[in-house]
Specification:
The chain is an all-alpha fold. It is built from five helices and no strands. It has two domains: about 1-85, no CATH class; about 90-130. Helix 4 packs antiparallel against helix 5.
């Protein structure tokens, strides 16, 4: 049984953005750390699916769940303004694992002043890269 996609709008929010819970669900969805491990091929597929859906040309047999997953991948990996694929380390979905790794090193190597300075520099550089990627 094929799903009726005639009224489906890929750009409409999945959750009500007027509520706090709806906004939390939206940001948890697009910052899901598991999307960091998705292959480049699958990300390119997601971009094609989102663009086709925006044009109203969805391949036959496409399910709503497939389009929602493609939108999740697209939102997590492609810049919202330019549409360009973002650097993996600069994506918001990498912020949690990347920050945890750096914090672990900062907690482990704190005994000497050069180590503290180095790991603070790494942390600030990582944050600057994330900010630059998402500008």
């Amino acid at each position: 049984m094929e799903a009726d996609l005639s009224g489906f709008n890929i750009d409409a929010p999945r959750w009500d953005q007027r509520t706090f819970l709806g906004r939390v669900k939206h940001f948890l969805n697009i910052t899901d750390p598991r999307t960091v491990f998705v292959s480049e091929r699958e990300l390119d597929w997601a971009k094609v699916m989102v663009e086709k859906s925006r044009m109203g040309v969805v391949p036959p047999g496409t399910q709503v769940e497939q389009l929602l997953y493609a939108k999740k991948l697209y939102d997590s990996a492609f810049h919202p303004d330019t549409g360009e694929k973002m650097n993996v380390i600069g994506r918001m979905s990498f912020q949690l694992p990347g920050g945890m790794i750096i914090t672990g090193f900062m907690l482990q190597f704190y005994r000497t002043m050069p180590a503290v300075i180095f790991w603070q520099w790494v942390n600030q550089s990582f944050n600057a890269l994330v900010n630059y990627t998402n500008r």
